[in-house]
Amino acid sequence: MNVQTIHTGETTRGQSERRIRGRILEAIFERRLPPGEKLTEDRLGELFGVSRTVVRQALARLAQDGIVEQRPNRGAYVAAPSRAEARHVLAARAVVEPEVASAAACGCDRHGLERLHRHIAQENEVRVAEDRAALVRLTGEFHVVLAEVAGNPVFVRLLTELQALSSLSILLYARGERAACPPDEHGAIVDAIGRGDAEEAARLMRTHIAHVAADMDVSDPVERPEGLAQVLGVTPRRRPPR
Ligand SMILES: [Zn+2]
Is pTM, for the whole model, over 0.90? Predict the structure, then answer.
């Protein structure tokens, strides 16, 4: 085996692994793959035409990012974030994403801005067409595209992970029917970026994340020390002595 063969083999394997990860993330973004769904290695290998080793690597990487949960002797599952984990994700987004928007406003060139405008146009198209799955995916991806345009690969990795965990949290804890970012807010952020107004882009993003958080019920269920009596509105009676 020469060096070229080894190199080609590694590249193909890496590409397959990326493809599997990409498709799983896309399905999560579109809410087609719900939290808690089992991801069977054999089945994924069959579907993608790759070995179990490649599937296992893709799943291990997703597990590292908290998107897949690996249970000993039981296999891999799509993560189901708890309310506390969902709160942590929202808190992280509230800190990181205004910085990403600000960095995009500072460092975005003409191509980056065109890309953002194209993305907004796509969001509007699918919104008009009422293609809900595509809208949910695109509004989620907007946040990753912003990190790409900001030109910071660490932001891109972080946002990909946060966005996937957000999608899963929204599926579990959304208050209403709306399961995508509020309309028009992405457009306003891109306008601020286009003007090079970093402060305004950050402010708008902060507000946007607050709206996303307000659409979710991630508070812990209220403790009811009084128990069943309080819930049923009756006063507990003492048991008569035997
Ligand atoms: Zn958004």
Answer: no
